[in-house]
């Protein structure tokens, strides 16, 4: 039996709801073989980030070479990259190994406010990684940082930001509207020609830790299985909506989403 292969390059979340842990659970649920490159360890739980321990460039490079020189991958996803140096290294290695189906989730700040990307690394992200991405998945604050504008508050402002993001080189922009002040959870998809709105009802739960990671990992898993980008994004939206609908009240703070919900619901249908 063969399985499509998906690689996550991200930070470890000891709490299991975001980062590498969310990505690998998502890969598994979507029938792909997951591999990982850990860029930083975080001591994290539902109450917040209690410590960030970046890995050395040597450690990140050795993991990338170990996975890509032997196992290879059909798609990759980046999450927390922490520094400009790690971004430069990851971009170079993805080019060297000709990884074409790349999803970049430009993780900057955790829900609790902890910084997961150094301020000066944003330029490296823009120059080195975004141009080689097939799909990028910024949330509204991340889009504002990348484009250098105020945070979009309306659908019209989201559309403007999506067009500017596309000019930076990624083939598909998925601008996530989870942070919109009210109304449904609308994500905008823009491929340089057409704008699509993916809309779901806003689910009333505080347990949304790791939504962004899980969504981007689901896109990568579907791309690994050779889904077309728009199709991959639509399946990922269904996956994250199920995961949020059945989110888990674990711990005393913001609990994680339920990665098993999508498959379970499909089994019951
Ligand atoms: N309350 C909600 N109800 C329904 N969908 C939601 C809700 N919150 C977020 N989403 C959806 O979840 C996905 C992730 O979006 P979000 O804007 O939360 O990402 P993010 O801020 O990057 O996540 P993270 O906080 O993990 O970094 C998007 O498809 C978004 O529309
Ligand atoms: C290692 C890691 N990567 C990404 C996130 C973002 O997820 P969230 O904004 O839901 O905390 C996180 N908290 N930790």
Walkthrough of the structure:
- This protein starts with a strand and ends with a helix.
- The protein is globular and about 45 Å long.
- A nine-stranded mixed β-sheet has the order 3-2-1-4-5-6-7-8-9, sandwiched between helices.
- By secondary structure, the chain is an alpha/beta fold.
- The protein has nine helices and nine strands.
- Helix 5 (140-147) packs across helix 6.
- It has one domain: Ribokinase (UDP-N-acetylmuramoyl-L-alanine:D-glutamate ligase, 3-Layer(aba) Sandwich).
- The chain binds adenosine-5'-triphosphate and (4-amino-2-methylpyrimidin-5-yl)methyl dihydrogen phosphate.
- (4-amino-2-methylpyrimidin-5-yl)methyl dihydrogen phosphate (MP5) is lined by residues 10-11, 13, 18-19, 42, 44, 79-80, 107, 110-111, 116, 209-213.
- Residues 18, 111, 139, 176-179, 185, 187, 200, 202-203, 208, 210-213, 215, 237, 240-241, 244 line the site of adenosine-5'-triphosphate (ATP).
- Keywords: ATP-binding, Kinase, Nucleotide-binding, Thiamine biosynthesis, Transferase.
- This is Hydroxymethylpyrimidine/phosphomethylpyrimidine kinase.
- One of its GO terms (cellular component) is cytosol.
- One of its GO terms (molecular function) is phosphomethylpyrimidine kinase activity.
């Amino acid at each position: 039996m063969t399985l499509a292969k998906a690689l996550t390059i991200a930070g470890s979340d000891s709490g299991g709801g975001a980062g590498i842990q969310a990505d690998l659970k998502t890969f598994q649920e979507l029938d792909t073989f997951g591999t990982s490159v850990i860029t930083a360890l975080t001591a994290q739980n539902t109450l917040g980030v209690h410590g960030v321990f970046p890995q050395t460039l040597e450690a990140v490079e050795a993991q990338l070479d170990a996975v890509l020189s032997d196992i290879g991958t059909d798609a990759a996803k980046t999450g927390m990259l922490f520094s400009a140096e790690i971004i430069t290294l990851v971009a170079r290695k993805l080019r060297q190994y000709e990884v074409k189906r790349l999803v970049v989730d430009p993780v900057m700040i955790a829900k609790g406010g902890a910084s997961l990307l150094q301020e000066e690394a944003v330029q490296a992200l823009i120059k080195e990684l975004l141009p080689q991405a097939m799909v990028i998945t910024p949330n509204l604050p991340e889009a504002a940082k990348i484009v250098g504008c105020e945070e979009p508050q309306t659908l019209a402002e989201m559309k403007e930001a999506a067009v500017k993001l596309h000019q930076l080189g990624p083939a598909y922009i998925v601008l996530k509207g989870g942070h919109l002040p009210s109304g449904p959870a609308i994500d905008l998809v823009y491929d340089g020609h057409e704008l699509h709105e993916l809309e779901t009802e806003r689910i009333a739960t505080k347990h949304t830790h790791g939504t962004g990671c899980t969504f981007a990992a689901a896109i990568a898993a579907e791309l690994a299985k050779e889904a077309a980008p728009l199709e991959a994004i639509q399946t990922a939206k269904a996956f994250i909506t199920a995961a949020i609908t059945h989110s888990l009240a674990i711990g005393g703070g913001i609990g994680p989403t339920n990665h098993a919900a999508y498959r379970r619901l499909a089994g019951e249908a």
